[in-house]
Automatic annotation (TrEMBL):
The keyword NAD does not apply. This is ABC transporter substrate-binding protein. Residues 62-287 form the Solute-binding protein family 3/N-terminal domain. One of its GO terms (cellular component) is cell envelope. PROSITE patterns: PROKAR_LIPOPROTEIN, SBP_BACTERIAL_3. PANTHER family: ARGININE-BINDING EXTRACELLULAR PROTEIN ARTP (PTHR35936:SF17), MEMBRANE-BOUND LYTIC MUREIN TRANSGLYCOSYLASE F (PTHR35936). Keywords: Signal. Pfam families: SBP_bac_3. Residues 1-19 form the signal peptide. It is found in: Cell envelope. Belongs to the bacterial solute-binding protein 3 family. InterPro entries: SBP_3_CS (IPR018313), Solute-binding_3/MltF_N (IPR001638). SUPFAM superfamilies: Periplasmic binding protein-like II (SSF53850).
């Protein structure tokens, strides 16, 4: 990958937050706080792609999707506390439309999702960074490339240096790439003064506690950092550069190659016709879109 993701342009993101609107029909995720940014009802069924679906899913008319909806702006919940919104949510609903089924998104704790795909859920979209460890147990379909970044309080009053995080109190969302990366960094570089890694089930908890001064920093996807800055009215800022850019993937069971093929074909269609770029553009992050729905699997 030679393209680097970038943070949301704050002015654009703020403007979008004020002006965002969208259809509340069945094809779009209804949101009382206006966080529908792309009207997925404009995405229509493609018969030849829909024919790739496993018969049991096609007959049920529902694609059961798991998502840890506490990781704005990719997947989070509207002000009603129930409605899933975000660019990942809009993408999976658009994929469902291409396949002629309803993508039914259910909140699940991030670190519980992979074991549940193939049993409780058909698939998952939840900002999963593609790693060798993950593709040993699930198929992953590339759709976006995202980096990691540190957030601090505005003005960096605690003097946090991302080049020297040893001994610092840094928050992550449990089970994320950043969780694993900090554990590894602390073990390899900070043996005399380990990083105090504070793990939260929800990214929103990390944001709240950083604003309140209980943390030195939080470490998250660069898009998440940019969105947190906007949501907190610039009480936070990014420190250091975006690092470790890597693709993220939709998760499917390795025991379901038919569904993997169908989802990849639907995603590729949305990449080719520009829909995926338009969804990300509406969230201020078109540069993160990938052009090819590559399936990554150990099989």
């Amino acid at each position: 990958m030679n393209r680097k993701p970038r943070l949301f342009a704050l002015i654009s993101a703020a403007a979008l937050a004020l002006a965002a609107c969208g259809s509340t029909d069945e094809g779009a995720a209804a949101s009382p706080d206006g966080d529908v940014r792309f009207d997925v009802s404009t995405v229509k069924k493609v018969d030849e792609i829909a024919a790739l679906l496993p018969p049991e899913i096609a007959e049920a008319g529902v694609l059961k999707i798991a998502s840890a909806t506490d990781y704005a702006p990719a997947e989070f919940r509207a002000e009603d506390g129930q409605t899933p919104v975000g660019y990942d949510i809009e993408l999976i609903k658009a994929i469902g439309n291409v396949l002629g089924v309803k993508a039914e998104v259910t909140h699940a704790q991030f670190d519980s999702i992979i074991p549940a795909v193939g049993t409780k859920f058909d698939a998952s979209i939840s900002s999963f960074t593609i790693t060798d460890e993950r593709i040993k147990v699930v198929n992953m379909i590339e759709y976006i490339e995202v980096g990691s970044a540190y957030a601090v309080q505005k003005g960096n009053p605690k003097g946090f240096d991302p080049a020297n995080p040893c001994g610092k109190r840094i928050a992550v969302q449990t089970g994320t790439y950043q969780d694993e990366a900090l554990e590894k960094l602390s073990a390899e570089k900070c043996s005399s003064s380990p990083i105090e890694i504070v793990k939260y089930d929800a990214q929103s908890e990390a944001t709240t506690n950083l604003v309140g001064g209980a943390l030195d920093s939080f470490y998250a996807d660069s898009q998440v950092v940019g969105y947190a800055i906007t949501l907190t009215d610039n009480q936070l800022e990014q420190v250091g550069e975006v690092e470790d850019s890597a693709p993220q993937g939709i998760i499917v069971s390795q025991q379901n190659p038919e569904l993997t093929k169908a989802l990849a074909a639907a995603l590729q269609h949305l990449m080719d016709d520009g829909t995926w770029t338009k969804i990300l553009e509406a969230w201020g992050s078109a540069d993160a879109a990938l052009p090819k729905a590559t399936v990554r699997s150990a099989q």
